Structure prediction request, 596 residues.
Amino acid sequence: MRIAIIDTSTTRAAIISEGLREAGLDDIVVIDGMLGMVAALEKAAPEVVLINLENPSRDVLEEFFAVSRALARPIAMFVDQSDAESTNAAVDAGVSAYIVDGLAKQRIKPVIDLAIRRFQAFARLQAELHEARSALADRTTVDRAKAILMKRRGIDEPTAYGLLRAQAMRSNRRIAEIADAIITSDALMGDL
Amino acid sequence: MALDRVRIGFLPLVDAALPILARERGFAEAEGLEIELVRDMTWATVRDRLLYGHTDAAHMVAPLAIATALGRGRPAVAMAVPFVLGLNGNAITLSLPLAAQVMDGDALGDPVVLGARLKAVATECAATGRRLRFGVVHRYSSHNYMLRYWLAAVGIRPDTDVEIVTTSPTFAADALAAGEVDGICVGEPWNGVAVDRGVGRIALVTAQVWQRGVEKVLAMRAATLAERGDVVHRLIRALHAAAAQFVDPDTLVENAAILARAEYLDAPVDAVARAVGDRVRLVKDAVPIHVPDFMFQYREAANFPWRSQAAWLYSQMVRWDGTPFSAEEADAAQGVFRPDVYRAALAGSGAPLPNASSKLEGAIGADSIGAGSTQGRLILGRDAFFDRRAFDPDDIEGYLAGLP
Prediction:
């Protein structure tokens, strides 16, 4: 069963194909970008097409399916109302799938379920990365604010941190926000 | 009081203005609603989110709501359109090389004159084996039907003499620049963006093809309307209030700034403001010209979902999908538009409410005429097709037989 993956994120496409390969589905074509998408699909003639829901090529893809004679009447996987749970899970995860008409349902379901799990895994990975990045940014901000306080008030680092922390608790804000305010005011006030 | 939440899907286009402004300008809140807007890049995803419950309603190209209800290309899902988000507002932009061959002067083209010139070029191109190619935003879009209506009426056969392909509106300027297409028919601000980038020239606005042609609608599943009728009524009132405010010239600058924001259109504010103000810049660096009623969002009960508009769209669906006319399908298509819901929602307000639910489309050729209304005073302006053909919703087959 040949599966085409069209994705705006090459990382996610790699994560999905890896999962499919692990499950023994190794006839995979990855298509990225809008240019040449239709030609690549025609050449690959896949039986299943996985595309991220937010991909800007979805209208172009559906038009291709509507007029193409190269692929045997692909249909949206969403339209399979008999499996509402799987459909909703797919939409929630951000996957859309098109399947050549007539392909047995029991052969498709594992592919879709796997794609959903991989999409979710990618989303988690992204969230973690985002968290890690903002934690790193927070730490840099707090370090800079501490340095300003230490210099201007002639205090040591633990005392400077203690000041930041106490102010954050009093005003019910995050330490990073207080630190950010100190950096901003230092930039504006200069050596006043 | 807790607000009822309504999630509305949209594409980044100027005519998504009413739901955006209903949220941003407090009209939704005044009706006890909190509108949450969900932006997407394709109509396929706007439709899928609507069908699978990610959104409650959507800004949608009118023919797609009908195609979804008729099950074109997928199993049918009952749909309801209780409110029209606007009429017209699209343009046909040609690549500069093509424009140089078919346009002169510094005004908008005349559909007949331009059509004749385009026909000559299209014939020439087809003879050399490289047909002219036009991009539209979706198979089931008013853009597709307006472009095809014009081309066919000037003797250019779509799909035979020229190619028509699907292009995402936000990438239309790129497609023109890359030479993938020779012309585009898209909504604003994307024609304006193509012009400002120096990759295209606006040749026609769709109001020149069919004045007062139905454009985007508020679409929802019929089940949502049945379950949340009261919320839908309040949403209609909020959108109607937003429309009244949208056409007030004093609000233009601020509205354009809101629409241009990253979370909405994420587009240059100048191109957005031109569209909102009915000003069209035809070619890079030119002074924008005023095109009265380029976008038409409020007057003349513009938001009223006439069943005859749905009937016209169905006639074009039959024409270009190449499917046989069916009286049942025609009924189903017209049943998607819900003037009854519009009337119920706006009863007791100052809004003019038409007596009739259907009218002869394209029959008002010159001056405005008064029309029967159960509430308020209703005036309808010129609504002609450029070839002066009128559409009688009770005789779709006769109309189709008379088309080229």
Remarks:
- Chain B has a mean pLDDT of 95.
- Residues 189 and 272 of chain B are 5 Å apart (CA to CA).
